[in-house]
Amino acid sequence: MTPDTPHNDLRPGFLALSTALTGFSEHELLGTGQTMIYLQTVCDMARSDCIADMLDAFCACAIGDDKAALDRHLRLCILSHPRHGPLARNLVKLWYTGTWHCLPRDWHESYGGNPADHDHIPSPTSYTEGLLWPAIGANPPGAKPFGYGMWANPPRVFRA
Amino acid sequence: MTGTDPFTIPPEVAFETRYDVAIIGSGVSGALIAKSLAARGLRVIVVEAGPGEDVTIADYTKSVERFYSAVSKDNNAPYAHSRNAPMPRDYDAVKLHDGQPNDRGYLVQNGPFEIDSTYSRVLGGTTRHWEAKALRMLPDDFRMQSAFGRGRDWPIGYDDLAPDYIRAERELGVSGNVEDQGYGGLTFEDGYVYPMKRMPPSFLDKTMAKDLDGLEVTVGDETFSLNVRSTPQARNGIPNAAYDGGKGFTPTGAVSIHQAEMGERCQGNTNCVPICPVQAKYDARRTLLAAMDTGHVHLLPRTVAARVEIDSTTGRVTGVTCKTYANKDAPGHITGTLNATTYVLAANAVENARLMLASDLHGSSNLMGRNLMDHAYLLTWGLMPQVVGTGRGPLCTSGIEDIRTGAYRSHHAAVRFSIHNDGWGWATGAPYTDLADLVDARNLTGIALRNALIDRVGRQLLLDCMIEVLPEESNRISVDPRHLDQMGNPRPVVSFDIPDYTLETVAFSRRLTRRIYQRLGAEDHSHYTPSAPGWVTHDGEGFTVRGGNHWAGTHIMGTHAKTSVVDATQRSWDHDNLYLAGAGSMPSIGTANTTLTLAALCLRTADAIAHDLAPGTAAPSASTRREGVSA
Q: Which InterPro entries does this entry report, sorted A to Z (chain B) (predicted)?
């Protein structure tokens, strides 16, 4: 991505929040190649100032490595917030499945998102890069197979 | 041949050519008959209603990407749709209310049972999205009336069809293990092996087998011992060197008019339905391209057969009137008539009946479109005690076959069970619905979400119960001038109910699967809701029954024109130069997916047609057929 890419200034906060929401490392998220596609998607379907506000709220306090504090911060400031919560939950599903789900009608009525918001998969690779599959030790159906006969072996599933 | 498309011919040429054989439909039935006849030098035209563009890796990749990009990943999601040749979608099946038909999709559902089965109107037909299970029917399945006083007998028996099963298993390229098929009276030729070795059983299969094998079940007066057995399937595996008397087997790879390094062994993409991204799964394009290689076959896509024309004196078919469209979405078509000595309708059990009824050809038995069958699926699902690696491998590698037949069939239907490697998706929409529940209702994110998904999805077992449905004349396809498609062709109207004979086994299967989950120590999560399409009740208990996409019976085979539509070669009793080919001819479907059996039937049909049109050309032998088509 070039420095001129729209929303490039939001990228660090977006990655930090995405890491906390998904339980996957920044390194793993970047490896999907979807970061800027997803940032663009949420900005398009909601509004970029809504996203900026959410990222500001998330980055407002320095948590460090305290997992319990991070969890509490997410719950208090993002997930239970009427504007940020639905966006954050949509973002989790987007990372996990590659599918953007239309935001709830009352969200749009209250915060004025894009009237053209709709369920969609931003790019074919969004589907194959879904985090759901590595989370459960499977391949995305129709892509990234493990190879002939590998299904006979015990699964390799790693608890985070 | 046109300049832009080296594979198909212009409609003007097709309509002005006199063919030996005109085949309606490029699916497995039509493709097998075309290949067999063309190899014997007969001039054949194959007509396909769908766009028919899928003969390059680039086209195929488009279908895979269409699947990736589809929010609703139903079994027709990958394929290019034509508004001029619409196809059914499972999500169009809805709960019927107040006896009102549901006409929101291509099929008009007249009820009382709403069936969510589909088919594909594309090059290669429904084998494009089939799962490729390739079980043989059992000897008892061919003699239902004489053995059990139920349903109908076939005019041929298992032993008559056994040599054709061998041919069909070669054509489709079946991976399997004969030793695992020793149940229910199944017999194989001495020393027979499948073309390829069985798909390795999944870790889930093996985990289940440890505790399940040896479970004794009493059904009626008989006791059966259940065992997990590998499922034969038309999917490329490791060729068996012992095949064909030690000659071995060379698998057919990806379909492409250009060279392609794809289509070797199954890689475990867990996506047999709706599309195998590497073409390890058989689909009828393989056979069709081999047929085209003979130089004796013309392909006319984007062409919907509209009317079968009959000479009223002789009853012979004089032509098939077709409508060819240029744009798959926009209205507009040209009309022409195919001209051939012999005609084959191979458009599937629903479309064959639709076309005949649209041509006012009800048959002297009045059975055209009647005796509609499909398998009734009861889905059950649970969580295994440990993580079993759900979501890996072909959709199913094993099943439970031991009670596919028995004296109990005098009272209720036969059943087999498939162990699903892909989790609860078919029943619940998993794992997407699991993710939504964990995020939206359980308020999980981050590492807690990841760990919860492992327990929620990685332990999933779906056990489907595939239950026999017998022919009943009231279950039928019909046409109604009030329901037309964009081209003005009548759409199929489905009237279907699940007979008590089948419902009894639905209830039995639920009782048996409860025992299986108890024995495995699995949490049984199966539940059924009255608001869902497919809701049925039996003895006060309710279930949701799903369709199996195994449409059959609508031009039923028999021994007499008054009681059946076609003879044992699938030739129409009423029109002696017309064959109706495919599962529509089957008088029973037992507990086998219909494709392997209909493939065996179609190979016999090709022999019968060749016997009439090209006497003296023996069927190409199994070992020479491959060379024969490219000569």
A: FAD/NAD-bd_sf, GMC_OxRdtase_N, GMC_OxRtase_C, P2Ox-like
